[in-house]
Amino acid sequence: MGGKILPIEPQVFDVLLHLIQNRHRVVSKDDLIASIWDGRVVSDSTLDSRINAVRKAVGDSGGQQRLVRTTTRKGFRFVGDVTTAATSERRRASEPAKIQQEVHFCTAPDGVRIAYASAGHGPPLVKTANWLNHLEYDWQSPIWSQLLHELAAQHQLIRYDERGNGLSDWDVEDISFEAFVRDLESVVEAARLDRFALLGISQGCAVSILYAIRHPERVSHLVLYGGFARGRAKRDPEHARTLVSLVEQGWGKENPAFRQFFTSLFFPEGTPEQMQWFNDLQRITTSPENAIRIMGATGSVDISDLLPQVRVPTLVLHCRNDAAVVFDEGRRIAAGIPDAKFVALESRNHLVLPSEPAWEKFIGEIRTFLAT
Question: Distance (Å, rounded) from C-alpha 56 to C-alpha 246?
Answer without folding.
Answer: 41
